[in-house]
Amino acid sequence: MPPKRKTQAAPVAEEPHGFEFGGPLGAAAISIGLPLGCYMLAFLCNDISGCPAPSLLHPSTFTLEKLKQDVGWQGFSQLLNTNTVIATLGYYMLSLVLYAVLPATEIEGVELSSGGKLKYRLNSFNSAVFIVVILAAGTAVEGANFVVWTFISENYLPLLTTNILISYALATYVYVSSFSVRFPNSDKRELAKGGQSGNIIYDWFIGRELNPRITLPLFGTVDIKSWMELRPGMLGWIILDLAFVAQQYRTYGYVTDSIVLTTFAQALYVFDALYMEPAILTTIDIIADGFGFMLAFGDLAWLPFTYSIQARYLAVYPLELGIWGCAGVFAVQGLGYYIFRACNNEKNRFRTNPKDPKIAHLKYIETASGSKLLVSGWWGTARHINYLGDWLMSWAYVLPTGIAGYVIQNSATHPISAATPASGSVFGGQPVGRYVVPGEAKGWGMPVTYFFMVYFAVLLVHREMRDEEKCRRKYGKDWERYCELVPYRIVPGVY
């Protein structure tokens, strides 16, 4: 007689979760406002007139017609085309095929509140390397004119639109699908605690189901949330950067140290995340947040198209940093990466093998729920010390843009400005047919190129506040005791 199967109990009721992000009104505003923000960043810092668009620098004479001329507005038809939809879906399909066929490791996630653990197939690093090798081979043969690079430069706006539409469609699919979750169930499906408000807009935005999955012929079961977190958007960010590097070379005939440094810093962050893929299974996104529009849009549109702004800017304005400028950026990047990787490694070792000699000396407190919270080492200096390293690395992304802002001068007889270097570039060569000077825009482009650093600080502080609230709800009095032992949140001695 076969053993009795353990019955999965429905989630235990707990105190109301409450609204985040301003509730339904805030969710609606973000769902409309952030996509519009992506378009604003794309249009207002452009390769047609300048960064920012020159008409914005003269409020007294500003007209909508001047702005349209500055940004090259050709009507809504320029925002989407069939080729970009096909290309984007093809990119997603390639990533899905690589997920299914390349070697992978199977790892269990954390214990679900309803019991049991989900298994995850992890090979995003292998998939990314495979795709990058293909791109490298194409570039070796065709150079900066490789079809992928030219296609991205010529279809940037339609690519943005396509990914925004996919994020809307995906959010709607997982929301509707979440109503098929039943208790008890044998496939370990459960609803996110924060996504059951009963308000359609809010639950669609925040994510109603915790771990939506889909089973596809030939590909097997795909965990939608973890797949979207590290695959199309994360690698897409670096692919966009590389396309802008190629664009700079096609325009000027050389590649500057600034765009190489920015692309390297961002690629290091992305490939580190892909290589350390198992660590994602203990993040708040996976263990606590539902998957809705917030994560879908963030993963597929916001991340690749706003995080690559610096490379897009430098593709048009070829700034040279020199040895000391590069050294300064490397120092900031190195410090941020050291803090980020060291504290995350310490946490992962403690969670997987507390007897590891490298962390066995660390002190911790044990909560009533059985969890252990570190109170020494990196995690004894601040409760979210990893966010400090994360933020410092963001400086290395934006600093290479310098005192940003430029005006594009298209006169073929205009002399080459000292701001447009004719030599000393990374790969040599001479500028051809493109004259870009700081002009009256100098400094006014910084709200665009430094946007990521400011936004990321706000994001991390908000994320830390959400973490704190979830931990306070989970650990109760034990969390208060922990906060007394580790009083600082992100920056030791400051915050």
Automatic annotation (TrEMBL):
Domain of life assignment: Eukaryota
Predominant cellular place of this UniProt entry's protein: membrane
Keywords attached to this entry: Lipid biosynthesis, Lipid metabolism, Membrane, Oxidoreductase, Steroid biosynthesis, Steroid metabolism, Sterol biosynthesis, Sterol metabolism, Transmembrane, Transmembrane helix
Membrane topology summary: Multi-pass membrane protein
Gene3D superfamilies, sorted: 1.20.120.1630
Pfam family, one: ERG4_ERG24
Transmembrane portions of the chain: 21-44, 89-107, 128-152, 164-183, 287-309, 321-340, 391-408, 444-462
A Gene Ontology cellular-component term: endoplasmic reticulum membrane
Molecular functions per Gene Ontology: Delta14-sterol reductase activity
Gene Ontology biological-process annotations: ergosterol biosynthetic process
Subcellular location as annotated: Membrane
Family: Belongs to the ERG4/ERG24 family.
Name this polypeptide is given: Delta(14)-sterol reductase
Organism: Lepidopterella palustris CBS 459.81
